[in-house]
Design goal:
Elements: H1 12-15, H2 24-31, H3 37-53, H4 67-78, H5 83-90, H6 94-97, H7 102-109, H8 111-120, H9 131-148, H10 151-165, H11 172-192, H12 196-210, H13 212-246, E1 252-257, H14 260-270, E2 281-287, H15 290-303, E3 305-306, E4 312-313, E5 326-331, E6 337-344, H16 345-353, H17 357-361, H18 372-389, H19 393-403, E7 408-412, E8 418-422, H20 427-434, H21 436-440, E9 442-447, E10 450-452, E11 464-468, H22 485-514, H23 527-537, H24 542-550, H25 556-563, H26 569-572, E12 585-587, E13 595-597, E14 609-614, E15 618-623, E16 639-644, E17 652-661, H27 666-676, E18 680-688, E19 693-702, H28 705-716, E20 721-726
Parallel strand pairs: 2-6, 12-16, 13-15
Antiparallel strand pairs: 1-2, 3-5, 4-5, 5-6, 7-8, 9-10, 9-11, 14-15, 14-16, 17-19, 17-20, 18-19
Length: about 725
């Protein structure tokens, strides 16, 4: 019987082996290797404080709770983190799970440790709409604390790692939820910070939990193949070491294999069977200097033929997280591809510990130090910008996820500076990466000195130039093709601010119109007359109420009746909720994003129109006879009497269906007529009917019925046109 990869009926004891109990004495022995006596004493005092705070508490494993903080501290101690990080790790749950306050921690261990503990603590006192919002807000809190002190996320990653190690006691549904969160958020964070030791174990534990049978099957296949490939790997190893000995290059050559999760992702992304993946095993060469890295590269390319296009120089252009190495894939014995990584010993240490190496090597690093700290600070600054631009925590978390999964490309500014962008980035993404103001005012772009559309996908090696104009502003259509989180969040933030201003103005017009019978305007109304309504709706200002009205979330008539319930009682009983003497709302065409036009009937100035309040969209204008709103016109709260203003301006979409004889050049003649009459063609569709006639549908922009009439008169003169109909 075949094995079902999704089957989860496995004894969890086979998946999780709880590590041996780890005591404070064991932790002290580790930190004694790199801390002085006073720092070790601080760590022990933190243990005594934490043990007292957690006294009587137990984990679901049944062991005293203090074993968890000690184990978290051990993970950081093995990375040689500083004493304050170790103390904060031991105390990381005292604010959240005990009666200890942040002030109490600060008094005993200082402000730095208190800030670290507070940064890791979840927000438990708030009420959340759902689990997704709770997750987003808590992760946002951690990331913002991380922006102030990067050690917060290191403690959080260590905390998550130990929780994953002991996840077997949880319910299956909770295990899977925690594992998914780990793979979606914490693994990418560890990758972004370059901490591969934590990332690889988190990936392994998360994969085992989400897909236990898939993990077992893949691990079994890898163990079987290890025996088959052993001879090939040994042959490559011997060939490399012999060649490097001939060149008198001191190097440490090791074989390595991919981890199950990275193999699984490759199989999923490329739809490959395991037998079709040949780079399961590879070689890593560790040398003393950068010069030796390139000498080794030449040696391996002479020894084995390189595969074209598979060489990556991360030494000259490091990854965002500071990772540096040379990667090349070679045709090994029997034409089996073998990946070779070449790096210095310092690069190898940074590849394992990432940003944590800032504390381990900050005193010994010299001129060749990999500046991972500055790269991380640059990224954290971007996080702060995204947080300020995001509308809520859920949107912020989605933006962060986008930013954590980049396949990088490298482009150049006109001055020759290198700019790193995610795969499929566009000139708009490039503009926002330079500066927010450059993105906001971008009007055109040049790719390799030639004009290119703003939605053009970029490729490594191109030179990008952005052309700006102070009169230009972000276009909502940009959101359809931008890739970077910074571009997306800044565009959304700008559009929200503009939309908010338009909605306030629209809400003011709607409510003022409803209050005309009282001969009072909002400006003349005392604040105490509507303050009770703001309190009831939960708004802090009148503008928030007006914005809600303008967005169609709250009918202006209902608000007016709440303000003057007695005077408008009779009006409330009217058929359509409109006072007989009330003037229709004038539509000028310049109301902005809160007034839109129905795509079902395409109203234009001169048509009889009616407005429908649509929740979240504002006011949608339809033709009076539009079939889509015939039934809804009975809903007096959502329908608004409107008319075109005498000075209405702008251009409006209009759809025309034309039945023409199937003659050469007829489409070009029709397009020329429309263009000559200063109308823009937004879209065109051509459908052949019977070989003799063709149906052509144009979506064009016109200024009103008079403008449309001129176009129709000219089109009807074309002898090939048999029939023309405006779609309404």
């Amino acid at each position: 019987m075949p094995v079902n990869p999704d089957q989860t009926s496995i004894d969890v004891k086979d998946l999780y082996k709880d590590p041996a109990r780890f005591l404070i004495s064991d932790l002290c022995r580790i930190v004694e290797d790199y801390m002085n006596e006073d720092q070790v004493r601080d760590v022990y005092q933190a243990y005594l404080f934490g043990a007292q705070a957690h006294e009587g508490q137990h984990r679901q494993t049944g062991e005293p709770y203090i074993y968890h903080p000690i184990s978290v501290a051990r993970i950081l101690a093995e990375m040689h983190m500083d004493s304050k990080s170790i103390c904060a790790a031991i105390l990381h749950d005292v604010i959240e799970d005990t009666l200890v306050t942040k002030e109490g921690v600060a008094e005993k261990f200082g402000d730095d440790v208190a800030e670290l503990v507070d940064g890791v603590s979840k927000l438990t006192e708030l009420k959340f709409k759902n689990k997704k919002e709770q997750q987003a807000i808590n992760i946002q809190k951690v990331l913002m604390a991380m922006a102030r002190d990067i050690r917060v996320i290191l403690i959080k990653l260590a905390d998550r790692l130990h929780n994953m190690r002991t996840l077997g006691v949880m319910r299956p549904d909770k295990r899977r939820r925690i594992a998914k969160e780990t793979l979606d958020i914490y693994v990418p964070l560890a990758r972004r910070l370059g901490i591969n030791t934590l990332r690889l174990e988190l990936e392994d534990l998360g994969f085992r939990t989400m897909y236990p049978m898939r993990y077992r099957i893949l691990e079994h296949a890898m163990l079987q193949e290890a025996g088959h490939r052993k001879e090939i790997i040994q042959k490559i190893h011997n060939g490399l070491t012999s060649r490097l000995d001939e060149l008198e290059i001191e190097a440490d050559v090791n074989s390595r294999r991919k981890h199950p999760y990275s193999l699984y992702k490759k199989m999923r992304e490329k739809s490959l069977a395991y037998k079709n993946i040949f780079d399961v095993y590879g070689m890593r060469v560790i040398v003393d200097s950068v010069d030796d890295c390139y000498r080794v590269l030449g040696a391996v390319h002479n020894l084995f033929k390189p595969i074209p296009g598979k060489f990556k120089d991360y030494i000259a252009i490091p990854k965002e997280n500071g990772y540096q190495s040379l990667h090349t894939i070679l045709f090994g014995p029997h034409a089996i591809p073998i990946e070779v990584q070449i790096r210095t010993s310092e690069m190898d240490k940074f590849a394992e510990t990432g940003i944590a190496a800032h504390w381990l090597y900050k005193e010994t690093a010299g001129a060749g130090e990999i500046d991972v700290g500055s790269r991380t600070r640059e990224w954290l600054t971007g996080l702060l910008e995204m947080q300020q631009a995001a509308g809520d925590s859920v949107e912020f978390l989605e933006n962060v996820k986008v930013d954590l999964f980049p396949d990088e490309l490298y482009v150049y500014t006109p001055n020759g500076d290198i700019v790193k962008l995610p795969k499929n980035s566009t000139p708009i993404d490039f503009a926002y990466s330079v500066h927010t103001d450059v993105g906001h005012t971008c009007v055109a772009s040049k790719v390799d000195h030639r004009f290119a559309p703003l939605d053009t996908p970029l490729y490594s090696g191109q030179t990008i130039e952005v052309i700006t104009s102070e009169a230009s502003h972000p276009n909502p259509g940009w959101l359809d093709f931008v890739v970077t989180a910074k571009a997306r969040s800044n565009i959304r933030n700008y559009l929200k601010s503009i939309r908010s201003e338009d909605a306030v103005a629209q809400g003011r017009r709607l409510l003022t119109r409803m209050l005309l019978e009282k001969n009072i305007t909002l400006e003349e109304m005392p604040a105490e007359n509507y303050q009770f309504l703001l309190d009831e709706y939960g708004f802090s200002s009148l503008n928030q109420l007006l914005e809600d009205i303008g967005m169609g979330n709250r009918p202006a008539g209902l608000v007016a009746r709440r303000l003057f319930p007695a005077d408008l009682e009779d009006e409330n009983k009217a058929d359509d909720g409109q006072a007989s003497g009330r003037q229709p709302l004038a539509i000028q065409g310049t109301e902005g994003m809160v007034v839109s036009y129905g795509k079902c009937c395409h109203p234009i100035p001169g048509d009889q129109i009616i407005g429908k309040l649509s929740k979240g969209r504002g006011l949608v204008i339809h033709q009076v006879g539009c079939k889509n709103i015939l039934n809804e016109r009975l809903n007096s709260e959502n329908m608004i009497d409107v008319k075109w203003a005498a000075d209405s301006s702008g251009e409006y979409s209009c759809q025309l269906n034309m039945y023409v004889q199937n003659e050469r050049g007829v489409l070009a003649r029709l397009a020329t007529i429309i263009s000559d009459e200063s109308a823009n063609i937004e879209h065109v569709e051509v459908e052949d009917k019977d070989g003799l006639s063709t149906n052509i549908t144009f979506l064009i922009s016109v200024k009103g019925r008079d403008h449309l009439a001129k176009i129709l008169r000219r089109i009807r003169r074309v002898t090939s046109v048999m029939k023309i109909v405006r779609v309404q």
